[in-house]
Structure prediction request, 483 residues.
Amino acid sequence: MTAKPKFAMYWAASCGGCEIAVLNIHEKILDVDANFDVVFWPVAVDAKYKDVEAMEDGSILLTLFNGGIRNDENEHLAKLLRRKSQILVAFGSCACEGCIPGLANLSPVGDIVHTAFNTLTTDNPHEIYPRASFDVPEGELHIPRLANVLRPLDLVVDVDYYMPGCPPESHQIAAVVDLVVKVVKGEAELPPKGAVIGVGDSTVCDECPRARNVKSITEFKRIQDVAPVDPNLCLLEQGIPCNGPATRSGCNSRCPNAGTQCIGCYGPAEGVLDYGARLIAAFASVIDAKEPEEIERILDGIPDPVGQVYRFNLAGSLLKASAEAWKAK
Amino acid sequence: MNDKTFEPTIIGFTCNWCSYRAADTAGTARVKYAPNVRLIRLMCSGRLDPTFVFKAFAGGADGVMVTGCHPGDCHYVEQNYKALRRFILMKRVLVQMGIDPARLKLQWASAAEGVQLAAEINKFVEEVRALGPLHWNLDYQEAVSTPAMEEVTA
Ligand code: SF4
Ligand code: SF4
Ligand code: SF4
Ligand code: FES
Prediction:
């Protein structure tokens, strides 16, 4: 019997939700175990970086990489796993486009550290911050160094496939596991390199069952300020900024089905180069106003435009990070 | 930065029916306008995808100018109002990104207003010159750094 192909999963700048999503495929996880030798997966198996370093290049068949690249440890692991893997998948919104951690690209890294270590909830009277290296009796210790900005995986290494979602939907993960198992058995072929996998081929709007008429918005409101929300009518039509028009399908319009707006976790729809730009176009199209003052008033209903139109995509957008963040201080 | 020798690069998205012709009129009438503007013709200002603007900035433009027919004169009825709304929302995004919104200008001009358009172009070039180079991380990998914690918390 030939050895089972090797599988790895890693988390960089991420929340851990993608790992849970993989475990959440229920009994399908047994297929992973039956068909793969799990050689590295910090959340599930005990293996050290040096074990990966000792592996032959290209010896891991499939690596699911989740999380963006925020520090030099993330970058090291991305490059290491790229070298060791035949197929590297940017798994989840964080690896694909930066996701929520990518919104920190609006702030200089110094502000991020201050916020984390010296805020109302963190009593730090002596202003003690972590040091990149320090001496202990056993020698010098190092902790990872934060980069000025967060980068999606493909800005650091070559990526074979993208699997968006925050996190990817379990049924999509299960379908991808099925496919890979079939490929291993020689029963199916891999999609072309660079493909976005585990997704639909249109937008969230296309899957959304809510009724649509002509949209003419005279006011944008937060959903909690709309009472009552019509359960059957398009949310954008009700003045609730819904990101469905720019977002890739794949989740069966999960949020609008559950009564709330799409916030865009499946990333840009096919053919969309800049997610936020597409949403700006979409929102501007539905505003019913011609006078600049009136347009400004309506747009005041979206108090944080970048947070609205780039919530998951800032680090993967054309501009990528704010001028302040680039400067790092 | 206010560098007199700095020549800003400006991308101008012009509507085929009005401002592109206005620029043409200016040319035939030998009205000079600054050579800093590279004009790209659109069929209508409503065709202005915000992607074009962000791509221009990310690709090295110091300023972006969008021109269209006067309100009421758009050949596709009301598309220039759509351009106006996109323009206002884009400016709000630029502010948050730390890009001076004055680097993006919207100008209405009819086909007959070559002289006025040339004057507006010249004015915009000087405004952008005064703002200095934007130079938006043309070498992205170069712009990424891992400053020492001591440095960022100082
Ligand atoms: S994509 Fe979402 S669920 Fe996955 S690691 Fe990032 S934040 Fe967490
Ligand atoms: S905008 Fe939102 S609510 Fe409206 S159709 Fe699209 S996804 Fe559904
Ligand atoms: S509706 Fe939008 S935010 Fe909700 S799961 Fe789908 S893509 Fe993500
Ligand atoms: S045709 Fe000129 S702006 Fe629409």
